[in-house]
Amino acid sequence: MKRQLPFVLVFIFGAFMVFQYFVPHESSEWVYEFLLDWITIIGIFALALGIYSLYHVSVEKIKFKRENWPYSYVTLIGLFLMVVFGFTGRVGDAWGMYPVFVLTLVAFLMLLIQTTIATNKTLWLGLCAVSLVVAVAIGLFDDTWTINFMTQEGLRNSMFVNFFDYILIPILSTMFSLLAFFIASAAYRAFRARNLLATLLLIAALIVMLRFNPYMPFGLPALMADTSNWLMNVPNLAAQRAIVIGIGLGIVATALKVILGIERGYMGKG
Amino acid sequence: MSEKVNIFDRMMRIDRRWIFLFLIVVCVITYTIPFTIPIYPVPEVKSIYNFLDSLPEDDIVLVAIDYDPNNLAELHPMTYAVVEHLWRKKVKVIFTSLSQNGPGMADQAIRDISDSLKLDRTYNGVEFKGREIVNGVDYCFLGYKPYYALIILGMGQDFRLHFPNDYYGTPLDDLPMMQGVINYDQVDCVVDLSGGNITDAWISYGQGRFNFPLMLGLTGVMTAQYYPFLGSGQVKGIMGGLLGAAQYEELADNPGRAKDGMRIQLFAHYVIILFIVLGNIGFFMTTRSKKEGGA
Fold it and tell me: Which of A45, B145, B183, B272 has the fewest beta carbons closer than 10 A?
């Protein structure tokens, strides 16, 4: 029963979602919307699980001093700070005790990590509780800022916006822009006319790269643009269509296998 | 005794650090020297521009900002060009962001473009007076929810299903522009600016099921993958990478980040082509001398 129930549920809901697509009735739409709501709710639980997992993995790394363990502190502090900034916000222009509040909460996090990894847990737990009490006390008596648990005001918190705009965006953009250098190096090594197919690939790559080159003489830019468009719209399109149709058929086959209980990988072992 | 390495061998085996150095020098020089390059718009970008340009005042376009900061260089200029074009024409915009880090990007773009709209500007000979962009009147930002395929399906039923409130916490029913806007039926088209798989969901679950006009803004590496949908008519147009964004800016007569970036990209491509050519010359000459030596 323990194993059969999930299969029955998957079959019923999978088959319903397939048939619902072809039944534009009000009650069918209602059940469909109800199921969409449920999937979102399950997704939110998965998000919470993900955050716990990140915390757990990072703490384990610190505890056993695995490779690059100090960076786990950066991960946890970054995660924690964004959550704090997202749930709080200044009321006016004054900072008040807000920096102290944030630092106290960071201290709470560090002590919490220490509590998890230390042998003498009582001492660290006590310090943890003290820092939390101080943070709550500041929260209760300082009226220059507010806690927004139930609203989305925190998304406008200047600290939240600035951390995103001036820390996260530059970091991610920098990581991605490094690709340009690796692509240049890879292109130099890979595009060699070793045989016919490699030569065709090389010529196609050069044409596509030169398609917007405005400095070529004798009407070559237009010729390059036309050839590049032909490459994209004929050979590329034909190959991509074959891939897309193949993937589509594969998805249908896999979905049927899951609905009919042939593919049971989602159940874990067995 | 070490074998003598000739110039062609060297051309075949240039240390990658020299490539990196040469590339960064060229990028810095082209960035420093101000000049412009001509941009020739292609039909797939023109079709997007023409469609959006033909929309009358108060129509609604859904702009999906489905990319993270790592795709900022290519896709952010598209957002700026498209949204400014729409707002100058007083077309209303519903923003969504189905990528985790997208809301911050969307919020930043909305703030910047709103500031730009305060100035008087002339585009393609038409004078546009500066005006204040008002949340709830000119735009509605729905924000982020996980599981993009479900959200796209859900918005086809009712925007309020997954987004009862906008990103800033205001109930959708309290926003003037959302009065009577239930689902995609009230939206003239969807512009998906994406750096990942979310585009597939917009095509399969969005356009495929609800049949709205869909236009794509994609990163350069993704572009070739989506041409089948252009050929089949499921997608009305594609802006591919920084070049696509620059072509849109050219059509909208609003040169911005993309056109500025194109001169750097052009010369970076020259560098890559130069090294490819050097590598191939080295390869040919080395192979030939080996054959001659063998013979």
Answer: A45
